[in-house]
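Bump. Still looking for Cyclase structure tokens.
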Amino acid sequence: MEWTGARYADTPTVEVRTWIDAAPERVWPLVSDIGLMPALSDELQAVEWAGDVTAPAVGARFVGRNRNEALGEWATTSHIVECEPGRVFAWAVDDPDHPSAVWRFRLSPRDGGTELSQWMQMGPGRSGLTFAIERMPDKEQKIVFVRLRELERTMTATLAGIKQRAEA
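Sorry for the wait, here they are.
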């Protein structure tokens, strides 16, 4: 069987959405609280602000420590690239001009609550996944596909945790 999925150089993306029975003003403090995220993720183990920063703002940085059974343990420095309270919170991983990934939460008022989406783009910068691909280049599309599905599951759980907290 021939695999016909995306390649890493295609900067593939994944997005999940949920509706939350709470206003964006209630949801925003949850999505922009980097300290909450490890409690909502199996992979993200710890997060801390870098430098003198203690709140999200464009240009602020934070360090995340991750663990994945297949990829091992690693730390990254993320740079906030979008921060509009009540609307969008996004960060680029490692180099903001050539990130290994870009992540974004988007909040939109809808039906008396909030539509919350979490979006992620792989690459174009190097990541732990590129090392796996270099070891098995003939399996690149499968590696990317499996990682996207893994991230989709994690992101779905993250949104469920935010929803539960916002509606409580």
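The radius of gyration is 16 Å.

Edit: fixed formatting.
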